[in-house]
Amino acid sequence: MATTGKISGIVSNLVTISVTGPVVQNEICYIMYKDLRILAEVIRIDKNQVFAQVFESTRGIKTGTHVEFSGRLLEVELGPGMLTKVYDGLQNNLYGMENLFITRGLSSPALDVDRKWGFKPLCKTGDEVSAGEWLGEVQEGWIRHKIMVPFRFKEKLKILRIADEGEYNLKEIIAVVKNDKGQEFSLTMVFSWPVKRAVRVHKEKIRPYKILETGIRIIDIFNPMMEGGTGFIPGAFGCGKTVLQHTISKHADADLIVVVACGERANEVVELFTEFPELDDPRTGRKLMERTIIICNTSNMPVASREASVYTGMTIAEYYRAMGLKVLILADSTSRWAQALREMSNRMEELPGPDAYPMDLSAIIANFYARAGFTWLKNHKSGSVTFIGTVSPAGGNFKEPVTEATRKVARAFYALSQSRADSKRYPAIDPIESYSKYLEYDEVRQQLNTIFDIQWTSKISQLMSILIKGKDIKDQIGILGDDGVPVEYHEIYWKSEVIDFILLQQDSFDKVDVSTPLIRQKYMVDLLLSICAQNYNFDHYEKVSTYFKKVINILKQLNYSEFQKSDFTKREAELNLLINERKNIL
Ligand SMILES: Nc1ncnc2c1ncn2[C@@H]1O[C@H](COP(=O)(O)OP(=O)(O)OP(=O)(O)O)[C@@H](O)[C@H]1O
Ligand SMILES: [Mg+2]
C-alpha cells in the first residue's frame, strides 16, 4: 500500500511531513488540499520526518493536511510529439493551457495520446534488444523519431511481436517483448524516465572531438565548442547572455535544440513564445520551432520548478541523443537554479557553504554537466548532447561559488566582459579571458586543421598574439599618452582593433552578419592575417588611426554583404585599393 503522511510544518515552499511508511529520496508526493493534488518532491528524509519541496504555492495548506506518496520519482514522458512544444519545468504543455501560468493543482498532458503517428518497424520478431535500441520510427516534424526500448530495462529482451507499418496512437501497443525469466511486457511508443537520473543506454561515451559550428566567429575561431561538449557564459547583468544564447540557438549546427529558460523575466519568456514560432531556420528553410523544444520557468513560478526544469531539459536532450541526433541544450540562467537550491537548503537549516549555497553545490553542478557528452550507441551510430549554460554572477564577480563551481566542470568558458558590453562590442565575450580546453586535445587540433587548413591552429595563435599585444599597448598608451610610444606600437594596436571589430564583434541584429559559416570564417582569418602581415610605415600616429578606421569601415560593410555576391566583391575591391595605395607609398 502506498505510504501516506500528514503535514507537520510549512516554511514557504518547504513542507515537513510525518509519515508512517517507507519513502525514498526524490519520491513524488501529493498534498491533498481541498480537491487539489499539489505536487511535491521529497528532498530529505529524517527517520519518520520527510522534507518535501512543493512545486506550487503552499497558500492555505494547514498542518495535518493529508499527503499521498506516489512511489515514483519526478519523471518526464518521452515519446513523439515533444518537438515545437513549450513546457514548464514539470513538463506541463504550456500551449495546452489557457494562459502562460498554470492554475494551481492542475497539469496539462505533455504528449497528445490520441494523435496518430505513422510507425515503421526497424526490427522483427525474434530479435534480441535492450534499453535504448530502436524498435521502429515515426516522422516527427523533420526528424525520424526512433521508438526505443524503454530505458528502464536492464536485461536483454526478445521481441515476441512488433506492429506492422501503419498509423498508431500513443496508447496502442507496438511491441511485446519477453525477458529470460519469461516475463512479458507490452510496449507503446511512450515511456517515462526519472529526470534526475542520467540516461545511460549508449555503448560508450568518448572525449568530444568534432567542432559544433555556432556561426559566431569569436566562438568558432578562437574558442570552439565541440559536439557533446560543455560550455558556460558568465556575465554580469545586461552583458548579453540571453542575446548570445538566443543567437546560438538559432544558428548552431544541431539537429535539435532544447532551450531552458530558467527563472528569467516573464517578458523574455513571452518573447520566446511569440518570436520563436515565427523564425525561419536559416539551415533548413523550415520554421526554427520545428527543431526546438522550450522549457520555461519565469521568476514568478515557485523556485522548485526552476530546479526541475534544467533536469527535464537534460533528460529530453538525452532521449533524442539516443536516437543518434546532435542535440544542443542551452540553459539561461543556471544561477537561478543554484539560487533555488540555496533557498531550499536554507529553509532546511542545513550547514551553509560559501555564500550560503549548499555544501554540495559543486557536486550537483558537476553531475549535471557530466550528463552532456558524445556517445557511441549500441548500433555504432553516434549521438551527442552539447550543453551551454549561462551564469549570472552578482556584480559580475567571477569568484562567486556558482561561477567557480561551473568553471571546474565546463570545458569552454565564454566570459562576458562588462567593459566590452559598455562599449557595445558585442558579443561581449572577452577574447583573452575566455578559453576552450578542447583546443588542448590533439584530435581536436587535427580536426580543425583538416576542416580549415593545415596551418589553422597556428594562424589563430598569431591573431591572438596581436590581440594580446594590442591590449598591452593600449594600457601603455593610457599611461604614457599617444606620443609616449613609438608609431609602430600604434600600428600593432590598430591591427588588433581591426581583428576586434571584424572578427570578434558580430551584429546579432544583421541578417548576414548574425551567423558566419566556417568557410567564410576561414576566408576572414586569411584576409585579416594578410592585412596584419603588412608593414605600413606611418610617420605619425594620427595617420595610423585615420587609415585603419577606413580599413575597418570597409571590412564592416564586407561583413554585412552576402558572401561572394556583387556587393561583397565591390567591398573587396575597395579594400584592395586602399591597401595597395599604401603599398605603393612604401
Ligand atoms: N550581440 C549583440 N548585439 C547587439 N546588441 C546586443 C548584443 N548582445 C546584447 N545586446 C544588447 O544588450 C542588451 C542586454 O542583453 P541581454 O538581455 O542578453 O543581457 P543579459 O546578460 O541576459 O542580462 P540579464 O543579466 O539581465 O539577464 C540587449 O537588449 C541588447 O540591447
Ligand atoms: Mg538574460
Provide a short characterization of the protein structure:
With 586 residues, the chain is α+β, with helices and mostly antiparallel strands.
- The CATH superfamily of the largest domain turns out to be P-loop containing nucleotide triphosphate hydrolases
Tally of helical runs:
14
Percent helix among the residues?
A: 25-40%
Radius of gyration: 27 Å
Low-confidence stretches: none
CATH topology term of the largest domain: Rossmann fold
Number of self-contained structural domains: 4
Describe the structure.
By secondary structure, this protein is of the alpha+beta class. It has 4 domains: 4-73, Beta Barrel (Thrombin, subunit H); 114-189, OB fold (Dihydrolipoamide Acetyltransferase, E2P) (Beta Barrel); 204-437, P-loop containing nucleotide triphosphate hydrolases (Rossmann fold); 456-585, Bovine Mitochondrial F1-ATPase, ATP Synthase Beta Chain, Chain D, domain3, CATH 1.10.1140. It has helices spanning 217-222, 241-251, 266-275, 303-321, 334-347, 361-369, 401-409, 418-422, 442-451, 456-480, 487-504, 518-533, 541-560, 566-585; strands spanning 4-11, 14-19, 27-33, 36-46, 49-54, 66-73, 75-78, 86-87, 117-121, 128-129, 134-140, 143-148, 157-162, 166-168, 175-178, 184-187, 191-194, 204-206, 230-234, 256-264, 292-298, 326-332, 373-376, 382-391, 412-413, 435-436. Strands 8, 18, 19, 20, 21, 22, 23, 24, 25 and 26 form a 10-stranded mixed beta sheet that branches. Helix 10 packs across helix 12. It is globular. The chain starts with a strand and ends with a helix. The relative contact order is 0.10. Bound molecules: adenosine-5'-triphosphate and magnesium ion. Residues 241-242, 264, 332 line the site of magnesium ion (MG).
